[in-house]
Amino acid sequence: MLKNVKILGLIVFIFLFAMCNQKSKNDSNKETILKGSVDITVDETIKPIVDDQVAVFEGTYYDAKVSIKAKSEAELINDLLSGKSKVVITARDLTKNENDKFEKLKINPRITPFATDAIAFISNKSNNDTLIALQTVIDFMKGIPNSRIKGLVFDNPNSSTVRFMKDLAKVKDIPVENVFSFKTNDEVIKFVSENDGMIGVVGVNWLSQPSPELQDVVHDLNVLSVKGLNGKEYYSPTQNDIAEQKYPLARKLFVINCQGYAGLGMGFASFVAGDIGQRIVLKSGLMPIRTPGRKLQIRNKIMNDKE
Q: Which residues form the PBP domain (predicted)?
């Protein structure tokens, strides 16, 4: 009898140990704002800055894994609305119709602005004219020919750059003739560098942070200064002109999180909008939403290093 009790006690102990071990394992795999994994769909035109943010975020929080997938704006918004993607990074806020759809689904998207980006016009280095009026590009998109432009080159028919320029020109479709589109910004950059008279339309982040294979190609391009629709001066997509709101093709960047719980998507959004993330934006050549503070050390006595 005593033997049976000991055996039964041993079985209960093993069972309880196994349950506690399983619970501990489940807890360790649970996603939090700083632990676990998350898939984020990114507008292809702003992928370089997001890659930088992910590298530092994962290097800071070793238990966090962020997987990036770059898509056109139309594709990532469709993925977000269908529930295929829970966290996206875009070059625009949600529209009223999109917000209404989420409201019907009883989903409250968390939207975090974190930077100001810009669309840039580029041309071949052989083109000595580095100035262009925005009205000239808009007229070309309306089908009005111009000797200044042989062709406009976009990254993708469904991209944020195409949508942005269509909204400016107030056209439903872009012209079929003399308008070219590829799949990515790097393809646009390479094509324009090899073809005279073409005006490329790209996210400025691809120029301020070119990949190693694109660095030499970017040197063979002119980044054009642009005159706004109501302006008289020409401004470049530099950090300074973007900050002073002089450049006419600036746009804000957003993290849109529809996870519905305090997961890694929320943690990443907080990171990019926080001090470290904003410093990464500043270093990239874009404009952070909040300028990171600087710590000054005040000394009563100046020490001579040579002494």
A: 36-274
Question: What DSSP string runs through the chain?
Answer: -HHHHHHHHHHHHHHHHHHHHHHHHHHHH--BTTBEEEEEEEEGGGHHHHHHHHHHHHHH-TTEEEEEEEE-HHHHHHHHHHTS-SEEEESSPPPHHHHHHHHHTT---EEEEEEEEEEEEEEETT----EEEHHHHHHHHTT---TT-SEEEES-TTSHHHHHHHHHHT-SS--STTEEE-SSHHHHHHHHHHSTTEEEEEETHHHHS--GGGHHHHTTEEE-EEE-TT-SSEE-S-HHHHHTT-STTEEEEEEEE---SSSHHHHHHHHHHSHHHHHHHHHHTSEESSPPP------SS---TT-
Rounded CA-CA distance 58/67 in Å is 10
Residue-averaged pLDDT of the chain: 87
Amino acid 10: pLDDT: 43
How sure is the predictor about 177, in pLDDT bands with cuts at 50, 70 and 90? confident
92 CB-side CA count, 13 A: 19
Q: Which amino acid is at 273?
A: A
Q: Which of 289, 282, 45, 286 is nearest to 165 (CA)?
A: 45
Say what angle helices 264-273 and 275-284 make with each other, to 10 degrees. Answer: 60
Q: What pTM did the predictor assign?
A: 0.83
Q: What is the pLDDT of residues 60-78, one digit of tens each?
A: 999 999 999 999 999 999 9
Residue 52 has pLDDT above 70, yes or no: yes
Which of 223, 185, 261, 2 has the alpha carbon at shortest distance from 10?
2
**% of the chain beyond a pLDDT of 70:** 86
